[in-house]
Amino acid sequence: MVVIFVKISQPPIIITIKQLMQNNNAETPPSYETAIAELESIVNQMESEKLSLEQSLAAYKRGAELLKICQQSLAAAEQQIQIVSEENKLTDYSQD
C-alpha cells in the first residue's frame, strides 16, 4: 500500500469585493494555493451575509472561476505524480 500526503499551508488572504472584480480581469490565473485562499475568503464573506445581491453574484461567479482553476491544477498535478511502489519501482499514478 502506498500513501501520499499533501499538506497545503497558506496564511489566510482577505479579499475585498473590489479585488474580486479586479481579479476577474487578470490575465494570468492564480496559483492553486492563491486560488484556494481566495475561494475560502469568498466563502467566508458570503457566509457572513453582509454582501448585497450584486456583490454575492460577483463573488459566486469568481468562486466558480477559482473552482475551475483549482480542478485544472489538481488534474495537471495528478498526471505528474509518480509513486515509488513496494518493489521500489517508479510508476505513474492512476486512479484504478
Helix/strand layout:
Layout lengths: L16 H8 L7 H16 L5 H28 L1 E3 L5 E3 L4
Antiparallel strand pairs: 1-2
Q: If helices are DSSP runs of H or I spanning 4 or more residues, what is the number of helices?
A: 3
The low-confidence runs, each spanning 5 or more residues with pLDDT under 50, are 1-13
* Cross-sheet strand order for the largest sheet: 1-2
* Element pattern in H and E: HHHEE
Report on this structure:
The chain has 96 residues and is mainly α. The protein has three helices and two strands, in the order αααββ. It has a two-stranded antiparallel sheet. Strand 1 (82-84) and strand 2 form a beta hairpin. Helix 1 crosses helix 3 (53-80) and helix 2 runs antiparallel to helix 3 (53-80).
Task: Give a quick precis of the structure.
The chain has 96 residues and is mostly helical. Helix content is 54%, strand content 6%.
Which structural traits does this protein have?
96 residues; mainly alpha; two-stranded antiparallel ribbon; 3 helices; 6% strand; elongated; disordered N terminus
